[in-house]
Write a structure and sequence with these properties.
The chain is of the alpha/beta class. The chain is built from 9 helices and 11 strands. Strands 3, 4, 5, 6, 9, 10 and 11 form a 7-stranded mixed beta sheet that branches. A two-stranded antiparallel sheet has the order 1-2. A two-stranded parallel sheet has the order 7-8.
Length: about 300
């Protein structure tokens, strides 16, 4: 058994489709099937219930998946610590964000001015990740919604969603929109994964708001362009609104409902895996945003 087999198994278990898993892993489907069969042979038990290309975990597979995650996390942590040891001359802080956030960017800039020796490795597209693992980052900044429910983080405040409309749309004459106003309107939604659409989509379903969800995209710029072209409306969180405000073809309006809000949180890797400079940055953020010691994870 090797780590490649375990990673292949985890990917197949999550996607529940051999073709999609092979495509994601950039290997052929026969090679993936052979790897999983060899793993099952070594373990002495099947791990999946197979139905053509579709697969699902049996009880043994569920048990092995739980342990496989732990094996991969420990391995990734070990590799990270070794890499940190090799590069201890250049302290690095890795951050994962859904999208650029002005308050976080300002905090990074202020810290960087007083720590010119530190390098920041910032990934602003974590929503596109199929598998979210806090141990890949020193800090993860994300909404506190269902997609990130497995993470425990520090509350960072909340923000409203706005509705972005084509500038010529009749509703732009209003100062704010009611949920009635957006009924039966064509919408474009961000859809970073096939199994997950952005939160306002589910909010509309929960409020029984009839809408025409006609367009889906995994790209923020494409989302903006759909709205600017006049074919759809879209929801935009306040922290992501900058590029829409700069576009004269788009107008942003608030929604007269407190349901269209999202809580934000900051998650940190376990203390024993944080480097000294990452711990210093964490403390800097807590002081910057007035987070109490009792709020820390």
């Amino acid at each position: 058994m090797n780590t490649a087999q375990i990673r292949y198994f985890v990917t197949a278990a999550q996607l529940q489709n051999l073709s999609k898993a092979a495509e994601y892993l950039h290997i052929s489907q026969p090679a993936l099937s052979k790897s999983i069969s060899k793993l099952e042979e070594e373990l002495g038990t099947p791990l999946f219930v197979r139905d053509g290309k579709r697969i699902s975990l049996n009880p043994a597979g569920q048990l092995f998946l739980e342990n496989a995650w732990g094996i991969l996390r420990n391995l990734d942590n070990a590799l990270l610590e070794v890499n940190q040891l090799k590069s201890n001359a250049i302290p690095i802080i890795s951050l994962g964000l859904c999208e650029p956030h002005e308050a976080v960017s300002s905090c990074i800039a202020e810290f960087a001015l007083s720590h010119p020796e530190v390098e920041f490795d910032i990934k602003c597209t974590i929503e596109a990740d199929e598998n979210h693992d806090i141990n890949r980052y020193d800090m993860l900044f994300c909404p506190n919604d269902s997609k990130y429910s497995k993470f425990k983080g520090v509350p960072f405040g909340d923000e409203s969603y706005l509705v972005a409309l084509p500038a010529e749309h009749p509703l732009t004459d209003k100062g704010a929109l009611s949920t009635k106003d957006i009924e039966h309107q064509p919408f474009v939604f961000l859809n970073h994964e096939k199994r997950y659409i952005e939160e306002p989509y589910y909010t509309c379903l929960g409020l029984n708001i009839p809408m025409k969800a006609r367009y889906f995209t995994n790209n923020r710029l494409q989302h903006q362009q759909f709205i600017a072209s006049g074919i759809a409306l879209g929801f935009v969180a306040e922290s992501c609104a900058a590029i829409y405000k700069k576009d004269s073809r788009i107008k942003l309006l608030p929604i007269l409902s407190n349901k269209f809000r999202r809580n934000l949180m900051i998650c940190f890797k376990r203390d024993k895996h944080l480097s000294p400079i990452a711990k210093e940055f964490r403390q800097f953020m807590f002081e910057k945003f007035n987070i109490k010691e009792t709020d820390q994870p």
